[in-house]
Amino acid sequence: MANPNKQKGTAWESAIRDYLNAFLGLVDERGTFLDPMSGANVRRAAQEGAKDVGDIHCAPFVLEAKNTASPAVPTWIRQAEIEAVHAGFPFGVVVRKVRGFSVAMGRVHVSVRTWTRIRLALGMDTSEFRALYGWSVSLRGLDTSRWYLTTTVRDLAHLIGDYRRNVPSGVTRAVR
Questions:
Q1: What share of the chain is helix, strand, coil (3-state, %, to 5)?
Q2: Distance (Å) of CA 20 to CA 7, 23, 35, 59
């Protein structure tokens, strides 16, 4: 792999995958899947031609990993949501690397619409959901399509575990 930016992106994707698999208890101490055929396993997605399916599949989420110095969060969120549809998952989110910090402190960005759908699936009110998972709001002008919410990878991992435990059919799609 000659492109250094591609190497950085691949390393970030792998770090997210490894962190989530370990946090969710899906791997042993060596990082080997406990059940290699489980649809609950977090996996880097193989690209499938013209319709990109996101970087990481973590049912019910598609994660679009970004390791770049210049953030374009609203654009990335739109990309993640389109890729989630292509992959057959209900939620698309962006996971951005924060320089100088561990994977757990990476930033996770979601649209207001996605945030609301996840919150309603979990049956939580706004203040409870915001406080439990550490969400902060970014409002960019009057165009609501540019508004989004942010949390950390660590809080996303807690959210994924809770979603899988509490929402019927919490793992909604097996890996192809």
A1: 40, 20, 40
A2: 20, 5, 15, 11
Strand runs labelled E in the chain = 43-44, 56-58, 61-66, 91-96, 107-111, 136-138, 148-152
Amino acid 175: pLDDT: 40
Find how far residue 38's CA is from the centre of its chain.
Answer: 18
CA distance 129 to 134: 8
Quick one: CA dihedral 37, 42, 43, 49, positive or negative? positive
The pLDDT tens digits for 65-90 are: 999 989 999 999 999 999 999 999 99
